[in-house]
Amino acid sequence: MPSLDDYKGQDPAWCPGCGNFSILKAFKDAMVELSVEPFQLTVVSGIGQAGKFPHYIRCNTFNGLHGRTLPVATGIRLSNHEMLVIAVAGDGDCYGEGGNHLIHAMRRNINVKLFVHDNQIYGLTKGQASPTSMEGIITKNQPFGVLSEQLNPIALAVALDCSFVARGFAGDTEHLKWLIKEAINHKGFTLVDILQPCITFNKVNTFQWYRQRVYRIEAEYNPEDRIEAFKKSLEWGDRIPIGIIYKNNRPIYEEKIPVIKDIPLVRQPFDITRIEKTLKDFY
Amino acid sequence: MDYSIKIGGEAGQGIQTIGETLSKVFSSAGYHVFTHQDYESRIRGGHNFFQIRFSEKSVMASRDKIDIIVAFDKASIEQHERELSEYGQIIYDSSTLKQKYEKSYFLDIPFTELAVKHGKNKIMANTVAIGAVHGMLGMELDILIKIIKDTFIKKGEDIIKANIDSAIAGHDYAIKQCLKCSFATAPFTKPKMLIAGNDAIGLGAIASGCKFYAAYPMTPSTGIMLYISSKAKEYGIIVEQAEDEISAINMALGASFAGVRAMTGSSGGGFALMVEGLSLAAMTETPIVIALAQRPGPATGFPTRTEQAELQFALYTAHGEFPRVIFAPGTPEQAFYLTNKAFDIAEKYQIPVLILTDQYLADSQWTYDNFDISKIKYIDYRLRGDALKSLKEYKRHAFTNNGITPLAVLGDSKHLVVADSDEHDEEGHIIEDAETRVKMVDKRLFKKLPLIHKEIEPPLFYGHQNPEIVISGWGSTYGVMKEVVDELLSNWDIAMLHFSEIYPFPPTNKFNYLKVLKDAKITICIENNATGQFAKLMRTETGYSFNQLINKYDGRPFTIEFLMGEIDALIR
Fold this sequence. Notes:
The complex is a heterodimer. Chain A is an alpha/beta fold. Chain A has helices spanning 20-33, 69-79, 91-97, 99-108, 153-159, 173-185, 207-213, 226-233, 275-279, and strands at 41-45, 60-63, 84-90, 113-118, 121-122, 128-129, 164-169, 190-195, 214-216, 240-247. Chain A has a single domain, classed as Thiamin diphosphate (ThDP)-binding fold, Pyr/PP domains (Rossmann fold). In chain A, strand 9 (214-216), helix 8 and strand 10 (240-247) form a beta-alpha-beta unit. Chain A is globular, with a radius of gyration of 20 Å. Chain B is α/β, with parallel strands linked by helices. Chain B has 4 domains: 2-177, Pyruvate-ferredoxin oxidoreductase, PFOR, domain III (Pyruvate-ferredoxin Oxidoreductase, domain 3, 3-Layer(aba) Sandwich), CATH 3.40.920; 195-375, Thiamin diphosphate (ThDP)-binding fold, Pyr/PP domains (Rossmann fold); 385-455, no CATH class; 460-571, Rossmann fold, CATH 3.40.50.920. Chain B has 21 helices and 21 strands. In chain B, helix 2 (74-80) links the parallel strand 4 (66-71) and strand 5 (84-92). In chain B, helix 4 (111-119) packs across helix 7, helix 8 crosses helix 9 (222-230) and helix 18 (478-488) crosses helix 21. Chain B starts with a strand and ends with a helix. Strand 2 (60-63) of chain A pairs parallel with strand 15 of chain B. Chain A: Its cofactor is Mg(2+); [4Fe-4S] cluster; thiamine diphosphate. Chain A: One of its GO terms (molecular function) is oxidoreductase activity, acting on the aldehyde or oxo group of donors, iron-sulfur protein as acceptor.
């Protein structure tokens, strides 16, 4: 059984009070409760404050490029589909630079767990708007306020029939831990958008702002009803739902590939002698 | 016997099928075959051709003079009539071209009418044409009939019979009507293998244990992906069509990181998107093989044509400083072995290795007696399974004497594998301190580079042993240079240097090619580009400047006559 100590990584270089700390705690707790050993999982990240996440836990890690988390995670997972592959991204990372990859990861339904640290601002580059910044918010780089409409990742994911769509809140660690566990136990690609206040650069969407609005989705809500999920995905403003918004049982991509039906790719032997036979094709 | 056949027509008329079938017949007959293709960036219409040269002697480039033109469109006649050799013939069907040509070297063969009469379908017109070429050459149909039977085995007896009857009809018609045909073919010998550049790269990858190929389709690299796909089931390979080239290289890096041999491929524009991933491979020390199939650019120019204009791009692209290896095979055979070497070196040193090819080589078919599988190197350099489990400690980027830390397979043991795109410590975690940065650059770059350099083979030297004239080139100009040297050797002390292992630049200790150049009176660098990219590299790496440059940048490959003419003008 793994303990929290097994997951102890480097000391985080996040701002004191950052919402990322509670995500980190919820994640470690979830891993321990799910009895996942550090070597049994690989956390993939890109660039940004969220991108540093895997350094603050102990596990296999690939910290790659901004926006490119999902392709790397896909490559790892296809090569070793017995590995738990977690993708950690920021809102700029995943919804901005990596938007194309997100769309196609949802289409493929690769069994990768994506957790987006969504603080609605670019923190690492010191305070520009992100795709999820609310329209009208003034930043140093958006002196006229954000002119584009706020991206709604939840509605986007429901529209793409993403296998598991949820929203968490860094201010509700217990609920977040539960969501992380649900996502990991779900078979299929999961998007968990985690509202995570940036205490340094986002002066609007603060812990207090969220606490006044966030509510846990009602127990009677049926996340398998896609039309209802659409309605739920559109809630933003005075009331912001957290919890599982949508899920389905689409078959996962890995299971559709006959090549890895029996053995993960990484453990398949290579027999060079067969090449002689293939050479005959060219005569 | 040294004949050239050109099959011309619109895209969608089956030009390639006719060309490939005839090539297969000739290689099965034991002849040496060289083919190249010319096509437009469109699905239907336009003008395409497939050119076949065959001989009982070795052939490795196309000639300008054509002996038989099979014309399926008027452009085939308008554009290529002047290429006809002294005893050449043009065959066409006046009913489909809606025109009759009266000159003596035209032979009107009713492809469609014979197809409907003998094959019960006008679609058999192509088979009639193939049969007609056999008739003109005085070749019997035995090999063709066997190929037809093999090809259509799943389609049933009726289709096989229709094709055979059509071929016979074309064959017999040509024999009766082509009174001027004076072609004679050599006796059949042992069948040869016939392979194109792209297939050779794909086959080389498979023979190297490649298990993951991710790419976004882009001419002329797509053929590599298609070949590997066709063997995916048999060899247990995942071929993933990525959403873009950025994803393709990152997926391949993920797969490689997870423990399998991985590759990607593209052309200039797509490779441009992969560039950040190239640096990522370097920083994370993740092995990867990248095929860069050149075509004329910039963004992105002449999509289906050929050029060697991405050497400088391949050399200097990506941010930061790190070792890379660049190979530029000149033949399908070299492509096969160098792809294997690319995988070996990528894995051994945990670096990116690029294979530079181009449209000309990608689509060209060559014949060989065989590829020697015993020359294929397959060493699994990774730490996996029990070997990994028994280790007390594992650090992904631990400092070692030679800069190489074994790459462990994640999940195979309790050891963790950590990679980072930022500068990192021995374990793989982000650092910011100056001292570690320097040690890591030393590890990745300065320690590995001399070892990698030792792996590089010198250029191939061919021709006169003390040459006054040396022609040099790299990549796909190999064949045409060699044939030209053969032609000119009777009158000139000429030799060639062909570079296929381009970077790190080949050392001179195994073979002093610089002395050969310095001792010659005239040295010419021949490149399929406008600016002499290789000549510049030579100057940068060795200080040596070629006397002369021959550059061709019209999107078409060199032919023997063209290159002879250019060289002749320089040396006379």
